[in-house]
Write a structure and sequence with these properties.
The complex is a heterodimer of chains A (about 575) and B (about 90). Helix content of chain A is about 45%, strand content about 15%. Chain A has about 575 residues and is an alpha/beta fold. In chain A, helix 3 crosses helix 4 and helix 4 packs antiparallel against helix 5 (about 120-140). Chain B has a 4-stranded antiparallel β-sheet with strand order 1-4-2-3, with helices on one face. In chain B, helix 1 (about 15-30) packs antiparallel against helix 3. The chains are: A alpha/beta (about 575), B alpha+beta (about 90).
Amino acid sequence: MRKGMGVSQGIAIGPAMVYKTRVIELTHRMITVNDVESEKKKAEAAIAGAKAELQNILDALDPKKDRAKCDLIEVQIELAADPMLQSKVNQYIEVSYRNVGDAVILAAEDIAKQFDGFCNEYYRARAVDIRDIGERLAAQAFGIKRASLARMETPSIVFAKDISPSETVMMDKEKVLAFVTELGSQTSHTAILAKMLEIPAVVGVSVEGVMDGERTMVDGATGEVLVLPSDAELATYEKRRKNFLDKRASLKKLRALSATTTDGYTVELCINIADPRETAKIKEAGADGVGLFRTEFLYMDAKELPGEEEQFNAYKMAAVSAEGRPVVIRTLDIGGDKTLPYLPIPQEANPFLGYRAIRLCLDRPDIFKAQLRAILRASAFGRLEIMFPMIGSMNQLYRAKQVVEECKKELAGQNIPFDAKIPVGMMVEIPSAAAAAQLFAKASDFFSIGTNDLCQYALAVDRMNVKISDLYNHFNPGVLRLIRNTIRAANEAGIMARMCGEMAADAAAAPLLLGMGLNEFSMNPASLPYIKDKVRGTSMARAKDIAEKAMEMDSAIDIQNYLEDLQ
Amino acid sequence: MISKEYTILAPEGLHARPAKEFLNLVRQFKSKVVLIKDGITADAGSMLGILSMQATYNSKIILEVSGEDEVHAAERFDCFFDKEIINL
């Protein structure tokens, strides 16, 4: 079995079609000084030919429907006739006595290599376009027809080193079952296209030795690729494929529906994300927004503290692509267990009880302010909300809000736009805060219950410790009382009661939380349809009964069994 | 010669449609237009030159316009980079 990176979910079974992009190779045939002028003329003809070819593709597209594709082809046309490329081609002909075909390949490769070294992912990926144009020109010059995905005969799984953007545009989409490529990433053309077509794709896997027509199987979730599978393997994959399609179909049905109970009470279902690009999953999951945007990735992947500008770009991307839906951004939650190389924190005996999250941020206004300013600036582009992690005292909440006000004042002074009414709320994950939720509700625009930490702190259980992990249960009556108190305080104060921990993704807990009065559940996108299904299948009246009954029980196991047995 | 600094306001950066529209504008004038970013210079009359600037959102580029119609050209580029580019 070959294994790569799955970049588009789904399972496909079918014959392989090996697409060879590199059919055009250097001939190494040299020309003489007498041929220079005629080769340069041929170069001009090749450019004209390539432009005509691309123009044909462009003419077949609908500029309204395929706007992005049209842009792509128009850029390709520009590249074909680019003066920089042309002068390099002429140089290869005049100085190195290369024939026109070799000259365009070499010239394009020189420029593509320069793009390969770019640090911005998008601009780096343009190297593919440049090599593609080099080959298109060479094919013109040599008079060769390039292999094309436009002329596929039977539905097949496409195996290729890489697939150029112009090729994907011309491709016969009905006939492609899946993509398997050696090159590519989550954001490559192939991955984006595959997701759009809802077909599986795996990148970063060798396609060496795969022959045309061989039976192959691709799992776009696990990244598994099988060539010539056994009957047993085939049966397993057939079953997996059916399950996947069933799940996708039922998921789709729910996507457009709201999380409304049978008696007309609606709650919000949101997703947790860790990267602004994941906002795309709001629509996929049928969610109402982002209930938790973990910002740590910005810090974890960096070599130094990320600046305001870099953070602004990330938050703005999230704000814009959420298309008017709320995005709750949690400020930096880092500490003893998750340290940063550029922010040394001395080893602590109890990192979970140590210098972390809001405690660290209030101590380091430079870090905190850069993040808050970035969020505020991005708030001019969508519906952002600010959420502080690990709030344990009113004093911390006031101080954190004070810093937000300072940042607002600075921005206003600089005439930089921001949402002056941006909601500012807190995570409820420290048991003392849950117990005193009535006090915090006066100063917070919303609560979001972080059940993972709340549970661990309230039960004094380290859930990573396998010897005691059975003691960790969010249905513990004490934990439930903290949760109920938090929700009640929010309801009474008229602020949103949210939850963003694992418990929000537990379908068994959904009626209980609903009955307690929770307004918003935020979870991983994959769990969302299940929670939606559960909410839509119950009534608020029944949920209240369930909550009441569960709260009368005295053990976590009894409550869990009771909830799991409910139908 | 007229030299001016602009901040790229296109959310996706100066590529695809914004790059193409910019290139079309450059061609409307006789003046030579040069792009400078982080000390690197490129010909604004070339798509490869424009793309090689890696002008992402919020990055700053300098435009140098020189030629007989440089005043008109510079005014037109002001409008492009300050307003039009946002809605492309």
